[in-house]
Each structure stands twice: as C-alpha cells, then as structure tokens.
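Title: Prediction job returns without error message
Component: structure pipeline
Severity: low
Priority: P3
Assignee: unassigned

Description:
Job completed but the reporter wants confirmation the result is attached to the right record. Sequence as submitted:
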Amino acid sequence: AWSWTRGDPAGAVLTVSVAHASVTGGQGLGIALCADVDGSRAMLDRLLVASWTNSAQVYDGAEDDEQVEDPFVVLLDLNPVDRCLVLGLGRSWEVGAGRPQARRIVPFFSTNHTTVWVATYSANDGTVMVEVGL
C-alpha cells in the first residue's frame, strides 16, 4: 500500500507499506524523485540495466552527462529471511554504480509489515532536501 501527501508547494511525503508475507527473495522497490520523467528516462534505464546485469560498467561517465536529469533514487531491498531491509539512496548513477550516497541495513521492527516514508522539501536556500525514515 502507498500514499502521497502533498504539503505546501515546496514539499510532499510518500509513504509505502509492504507486507513481509508478500515478499520473496530478490524483491524490492525503487522510488525515483525527478522533475521531468522524460528527461530522466535515460538514467533510469541505465539503473535498470545495471540492476539486471549486476554491472556498474553501464554507469561509466554517466555522472558527467548534462543532457539528462539524474533523478534521486531510493531503493528498498526486502530480505525476509534475514528479517531486514537494505536501503540505498543517491543519484541514479551513484546507486547504479554501486556507490550510493547512503546505504543502511535496517532490521524489521514489525513481524507483519514495514512502512517507509520519503519526504521532500525545499530548504531556505532553495536546495531540495530528501529525508527517508521508517
């Protein structure tokens, strides 16, 4: 289940809840935050190829490509066997190259489901901020 709550024009919160029983090994969820989906498509396609082929080589030099928008991505890999969530965040080229800005392994807090929220807002200096929590 998911919900999208829009605050003021400068921010919003996405909440995702996943039932542990519905997840088998190797499943997860990706969330891409971008202003222009069409402008981000090339970078997101590269991320999918890197995930499918388990190869960071598709990202060589991608961070230098100024022709496309590089979305901020949140990848959630659910591991019901070890009862944890592996969270990776960063620009798509960073995550796809295996160098996310942040990577955390978080134990399940509930026996039934895990709920994750992603909030975006503009700081006073105009910087777009992203926060993720459980």
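Comment from assignee: result matches the submitted record. Helices lie at 37-53, 92-96.
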